[in-house]
Write a structure and sequence with these properties.
The structure holds 2 protein chains of 2 kinds.
Chain A lengths: L4 E7 L2 E7 L2 E5 L7 E7 L2 E9 L5 E10 L4 E10 L5 E10 L4 E10 L7 E10 L5 E10 L5 E9 L3 H8 L5 H13 L8 H11 L1
Parallel strand pairs in A: 3-5, 4-6, 5-7, 6-8, 7-9, 8-10, 9-11, 10-12
Antiparallel strand pairs in A: 1-2, 1-4
Chain B lengths: L3 E10 L2 E11 L4 E5 L6 H9 L4 E10 L2 E2 L5 H6 L2 E4 L6 E5 H15 L7 H14 L4 H4 L2 E2 L5 H15 L3 E5 L7 H12 L7 E6 L3 H5 L4 E6 L2 E6 L2 H9 L6
Parallel strand pairs in B: 3-10, 3-11, 6-9, 9-10
Antiparallel strand pairs in B: 1-2, 1-4, 4-5, 7-8, 11-12
Helix pairs in contact in B: 6-7
The chains are: A alpha/beta, B alpha/beta.
Chain lengths: 205, 247
Amino acid sequence: MNTDNILLIKKGDVITQRHISDQYMTFEPNASEPLECFLLVFKGDTQIQVNLKEEGATCLIQALYLIDKDHKANIDIKISHLGRDTKSSQIIKGIATDQSKVSFFGNIYIDNNAQKSDGYQNHRALLLSDDACVQAVPALEIYADDVKCSHGSATGPLDENALFYLLSRGISSKSAKKILLESFVSGMIPTEYNSIIQQWIEDHV
Amino acid sequence: MAFLEIKDLHVEVAGKEILKGCTLSIEEGEVHAIMGPNGSGKSTLANVIAGNPVYKVTKGSLLFRGQNMLEMSPDERARAGVFMAFQSPVELPGVGIAQFLKTALNEKLKSMGKPELDAVQFIKRLKTRAQALNISDAMLKRSVNEGFSGGEKKKMETFQMAFLEPDFCILDEMDAGLDIDALKTVSDGINVMREKTRSFLLITHFQRLLNYIEPDYIHIMIDGQIVHSGDKLLAKSLEEKGYDEYR
């Protein structure tokens, strides 16, 4: 299976795909053209820096990582709110299994010139084995007093109650896990790329 | 051979013994109700029969049609015909009701060596059962239990039961949090399923449910044991006198 990391950038209805590996990317969207990107990570280092300089600039980043074997993944996303009224939203989800190790660093920086800005970050990870490890380090650096900024992070195994509910309806353990994992990742990546994710899940339940 | 045979069942949760020698026998086609005060072990019994791994059986036996259920996983028990309507069912965001029920039914049919339902047969069965319980098409398009009210969740449990047609139905506090209209809808849905080959175990605090679903037998559970059994008239005397005389 192809396990190159994938970066998708959406402009209007057009999605451009870039294969990336161990690289640093920087973006500077302006107000008239928001950055909307999707990241699918299987291993390695991925660094994204977004500078929101222009007043009203916005970005939406959705990142999904699927890490197996003894692979390591470092995902580092830094959003710098430099201009007034800028907005960022990051949704990061991941599944780690086998002996994989994941580090997620998510930084939202709000400059003192970036009043009325809004930064949001949410990270959720599922651990499918006892030996997999996810370390999440969210950080907020805020130097303006009239802003909205929030973040949340949760890492844990599959919900036992949800799993039991599915099993109690006669659904096998493998199918039940598949259903829960597919619902966990749904909406994270444009549907054209669903088959890659579904295959990964199929191979890991 | 009894349909369901529970003998001297001892069950622990997190190291604490909840069931302390529970014995119960149910025949095919019978409706049994278990009543008892809070914390007496009623829901534990329901969960143990369904195979919830949180509950550890330390002693005793649990046979369903002669099969040793304690050696079966929860999904094997369900495919063998056991169904539990949950007291508080979980929400499954992103899991559509149709997909969920289709997977459940097809896995059951497959294990029985029967062909899976095709799309047309499936939709027909789904819609017929939904209509009988006043479940709208809009509701069927939602995720399982997500954002449902208490009443909607109970209706959805009843609907799943009607759809999957299990042989042994455990209903854990189906009346909790239901208004009279919802209770009537849910009870009607259960009553139409009563058949010679299907048995029910109702778990409830109150006599109210038993006015709508008439049981053949009522058992009183106190402190992890069934201490008294009787016919449907027992509910009325309980309503008047409480559980004190059985403690």
